[in-house]
Amino acid sequence: MSPLWLLILILVLAIAGFAIGRTRAMASVDDHRKLHSRPNYYGTNVAMLAFAPAALLLAVWVVAQPIVINASVSHLIPETSYEDAGALNLIMSDVKRVAEGLDVAVAQGALSAEEARSIRTEFTDVRARLGEVGVALGANVDRDVLRAAQAYRARAATGTWFMTAAVLIVALAGFFFAIREARGDFRARNRVENGILTLLITAASIAILTTLGIVLSLLFNTIEFFRLYPALDFFTRLEWAPSFSGRGGASALGILPLLWGTFYISIVALLVATPIGLFAAIYLSEYASKRVRAFAKPLLEVLAGIPTIVYGLFALLTVGPLLVSVFGNGGLLGVDWMGGGRAVMTAGITMGVMLIPFVSSLSDDIINAVPQAMRDGSYGLGATQSETVRQVVLPAALPGIVGAVLLAASRAIGETMIVVLGAGAAARMSLNPFEAMTTVTAKIVSQLTGDSDFASPEALVAFALGITLFVVTLGLNVLALYIVRKYREQYE
Amino acid sequence: MKDNMEGRKLVDQMDVKFQTRDVQVYYGDTHAIKDVNVDILDKTVTAFIGPSGCGKSTFLRSLNRMNDTIPIARVEGKILLDGEDIYDPKVDPVQLRAKVGMVFQKPNPFPKSIYDNIAYGPRIHGLARNKAELDDIVEHSLRRGALWDEVKDRLQEPGTGLSGGQQQRLCIARAVATEPEVLLMDEPCSALDPIATAQVEELIDELKQNFSVVIVTHSMQQAARVSQKTAFFHLGNLVEYGDTDQIFTNPVDPRTESYITGRIG
């Protein structure tokens, strides 16, 4: 039975169990107020026990079965026919393709089940027979591959049979166990609540485990990279010059020029976003009337909803040319500082615009959290509104605002599309903000786009870059959250 | 002590600080204060009492135009401070509030040092010519707030780190530092324990030598202890206004009597 049908079957069993459990619990007492829990809990308990363990087993089985069969079938391929693990993988995917082809052929009646089990390449042109039913194979089927495919089919069939049996047994066992329990004095409500708690914990752990998985995958690849390339060079070298073909000799993979570009662009972005965002927040929270606020705040937050690739286009097509027409050769200022549209300033200003709603929205919340009593106290002493904002509200909100700016900074550091399009691709350490530079994220993209050989340091360096970036932004986030939380405690 | 107070009162009683005539306050469509006429005397403690929601805090807040910060609040009628209408368009509410200070129900020290909390008002209004004068004002105000001895060694520590009673005395000292003529207090002891309350009440008694003090309170004992004049508010009306002794021993209006004996409110 296919997993989908099996799932539907245990679902039906669970629904039936709900009705039966509920009825049975009601029938076990003369007055349903004497039940320990409301009748629905008895039903839910039966449904839960019939469904959850069986569904879990099904899920595990569906994932594990192909892995186990793959491992056992691959022994049938003689070791002489492949050289390394990669070649074996290719053969195994042939095996699976043939096995699926035989399934299709049997399903369409082109082969009998018996024939599919026993045909031999010596007597039958398997490729042609499978071609008739619409399964195209790249080459003639090898004798060993066909044998392996037949074994694969046989074991998959056995596995599926066992799976069906095991899942149904577990489902029925849960079903009858819970039905037996469905009597008036059973604490069904507590059991169901525990079930819900388990569900919630599972959801939380999936999120945490995924993060852990990402970190570990970065970590292992980074270790692999440092085996091929000295860590000291990576962290201290002032040059970034990867050589992909190998013709140019060894690559120079120093992270410092990339970090410099990243921080330079982020600082420009924060210099744009912090004052504008903060002033906007002060206006919105302290001065704007309710009506203005009601439409201005959502409008500002629309900026946050624009995909960053669109900002990238804006940088490339509007901000860059605009800056060149002012600072470039023959520009308005008559200076020749800027060679092309792609520069630190281009990316920084655009990124700053992107961060404005981030800073303003967070700061606005924080300024609003400053108690009205503070403002009243200041007004009561004869302070004007701007004195109150400057001397009482902002100092009170400062830790939170710093936190907001740090969160914006970690977004700026991790930003990719704007720098790919706006900042250029040259890794250099220069102070001139009108020169093209590049960032860690942009280089991760360029190292991994196209064909990359994951055994070479030039590709693996992306993971080392990634984990460095991850550590930097994680540190900023932790610092920001710490500051924000410390501030929140003050007024609660 | 009592005789002494009475004697001084006779001398100063003629000074009327606030005169209000037919004052109405509206919150949107709600008519919160109706036809209030009252004369508040200088160098006297005046208590506003009444059940919750009777409008006593609202009326207090209209005396220094704090209601201006609430967009839907509207004040009609005349409120005269030393004969001048404080709702006249020529009057700057900011300057008015420097003359009519306010202390709030919950202590609200600014997130600054004790020193900066007190120096806030004098700095804004330029009351000190130099650092030494500012130091003097801070010390003098803290002494008037009966807090100097407790905090003189830690003036640079945050004001939020003080205990509740100390914070409230800090707020009173802060209000005193701007040299106001009137001090409005909106239930200044409701967040304090009995000991801190006693300290604040003692302070109020001293403050009336220099200021006119108006205090809103829920505690009738407090009104009886600290005030010379009492006004009883009920449902937005000023029901009765007179000497505290008379209000508590021989009220004219039956509603006042019911409230004082605990039958309404």
TrEMBL record, chain A:
SUPFAM superfamilies: MetI-like. Residues 259-480 form the ABC transmembrane type-1 domain. The keyword Transmembrane applies. It is found in: Cell inner membrane; Cell membrane. It is a multi-pass membrane protein. The chain crosses the membrane at residues 43-64, 160-179, 199-220, 263-284, 304-327, 339-359, 459-484. Keywords: Cell inner membrane, Cell membrane, Membrane, Phosphate transport, Transmembrane, Transmembrane helix, Transport. It comes from the Bacteria. Part of the binding-protein-dependent transport system for phosphate; probably responsible for the translocation of the substrate across the membrane. Belongs to the binding-protein-dependent transport system permease family. CysTW subfamily. This is Phosphate transport system permease protein.
From TrEMBL, chain B:
GO terms for molecular function: ATP binding. It comes from the Bacteria. Signal peptide: none annotated. PROSITE patterns: ABC_TRANSPORTER_1, ABC_TRANSPORTER_2. Residues 18-260 form the ABC transporter domain. Keywords: ATP-binding, Nucleotide-binding, Phosphate transport, Transport. InterPro entries: AAA+_ATPase, ABC_transporter-like_ATP-bd, ABC_transporter-like_CS, P-loop_NTPase, PstB-like. This is Phosphate import ATP-binding protein PstB. It comes from Sinisalibacter aestuarii. The gene is pstB.
